[in-house]
Amino acid sequence: METSRSAPLPDRSQPSHCPLRRALLVLPLLLGTAFPLAAAETLADAWREALAVDARLHAADADTDAARATLEAARGLALPKATASASYTVLSKEPAARIGLPTLPGIALPDQLPLSERTYATHAVQATLPVYTGGRISAAVNAAGIGVRASTFERQRSEQAVKLEVAETWLDVLRSRSALAATERHLAALDAHARDVDDLHRQGVVPRTDVLSVAVARADARQQLTRARHGADLATAAYNRLLGRPLDATADLAEPPPDTAGRDDFATLAARAHQQRPELALLGARAEAGDQEAEMERAARRPQVGLSAAVLHEDNRYRVSQDIAQVVIGVQWDLFDGGIQRQRTDAATARARAARERQADSASRVELEVRHEWLAVDEAIQRLATTSTAVAQADENLRVARDRYRNGVGTHTEVLDAEALRTLTDRNHLNAHYDVHLARFRLQKAVGEL
Fold first, then answer.
1. Is the pLDDT of residue 64 over 50?
2. pTM of the prediction?
3. One-character DSSP codes across 46-69
4. Domain 79-89+114-447: which CATH number of 1.20.1600.10, 1.10.10.10, 3.30.300.30, 1.10.8.60
């Protein structure tokens, strides 16, 4: 015997339009006009704050300061050096020279002549100047200058890494909050459907299994809601950490603007990446520095010429003049050192060659990375277009399923399936939306333009 169905139930998921509700909706707008709220934080704001507090960038700045100081020290090698010294000498005996004077009857003549006191103080001021070093100083200056450039490239790499991490975390916060809102909508839709099921069950129109199954679906949705809330909280904490804020600080973030940027062809992007990626420039600088280190070692095997001048004062009563000035020009040439300098030259040359090999390998890796992110942008754009249409279709499918169920021509399973499909479509759509922006940022990082 067929069970009769009652009249269609009203859609309780739709808001009523009573005057009180309309007044409540208008009131926040009026308050917002009278008391403007602070603007939501954009990604540019986040970048500015994160770059000011990030420890990696502070470390990179310290490395740059160290490289500049090293360069100034290398330049100082070509300047005169002035030193002052003092010493106090204590001898066991007074130095003396043996003299052979002829003996005279009745006269005792000394057979030694004192040369210095047993204790005396010596003071000296000396200046030295390298005249010729075989190119060692110029190579040291060049190597230090390359070190400054390398530290700049390292700083650029660190800054781009920080900016990408902040962008990813910023999008994670927005994505997790959108996912939380979608989960709340899903639970609200199940609550509305549960009320319909309860009404129909009390009328004896639907079996108790419909009530039980919707209760299970609501319980699962509440678990998903808890998970989504925790995910949004964790994403906000990670975002606050990068900006140097307390982990539980409130973060009001602005949604990214619609993606309207075009897409350059892969060859153009790859060419720009080869020119702009700081990693490649850093490896090239390391190779140049290795060449200069090898030149420094070669220069050490050439003659070294230096000029020095000094003024000495010795407190010695046996000296006719206790103040003496001297000028010395000296040449030093290591004719044989056991092959040490040659081996050091070979080692520096090998390091330069290794850096160039790594640069070539990194260039191909950069090109592959650019291609990967270039395709990721295309995929995300196509997914966004597809899911935009699917969202409207899923909403219509859910509406039809609920209408059929209320009118007794559809089943409870159809409604749950339609709601699950709508939830999945919402999730796919919001993921595609944020993946477009994420892929754009990663592509900019791959090209070296973030």
1. yes
2. 0.80
3. HHHHHHHH-HHHHHHHHHHHHHHH
4. 1.20.1600.10
